[in-house]
Amino acid sequence: MKTILHISASPRGAAAYSRIASDRLVAALVGRSPGARVIARDLAAAPPPLVDAAFSAAILARDAASPALAVSEALIQELEGADTVVIATPMHNYTVPAVLKAWLDQIVRIDRTFRSTPAGKMGLLADRPVFVVMASGGWFTEAAQEGVPVQPDFLTPYLRAVLGTIGLCDLRCIPLEGMARGPDSVARAMAGAAAALG
Ligand SMILES: Cc1cc2nc3c(=O)[nH]c(=O)nc-3n(C[C@H](O)[C@H](O)[C@H](O)COP(=O)(O)O)c2cc1C
Model pTM? Predict the structure, then answer.
């Protein structure tokens, strides 16, 4: 039985565009793998802990048994158990929202999900498809509309770099742009995403 891990990071819950589009994507994925188990992790509803002194000390000491790493271990095991990952996220100030960064800080862990080698960081997780549905008020790809300037994008390259660090390189990014530019713009973006998903 396939397992799909659905991570959502918008504070807007079921009203979030990233969530609406990713719910459709998850439904389509389940349609292709009947009986698939879906694990929904709403990071905004239940934010992962922030890195604190105890967490930092345990990481630096490579103290895998430390209680400070218990949440990290649980989140990593949840990720390891997923055949497909769907991340639904808004763009907040050109990059990931704080709750998604908090999740990444829990799962990107030296000597657990990556190793530091003379040749650089080496991912320890098996690769698998990671769909990333990204909603933004304006535009950040080449496809800027109506003369609106393209914004800096620290969201896509950051996610590629940080997930690539732990071995997740098969990222399939689905941008939903112009979501704060009125209903026509929203409809265009949703239709574009639906077409991209096939
Ligand atoms: C704190 C905050 C920061 C934002 N920063 C950006 C930004 O940098 N660029 C942008 O295009 N839109 C930005 N937006 C707009 C959101 O990306 C947009 O509303 C998007 O639809 C949110 O995704 P959601 O509908 O999935 O919640 C920001 C919104 C908030 C609340």
Answer: 0.97
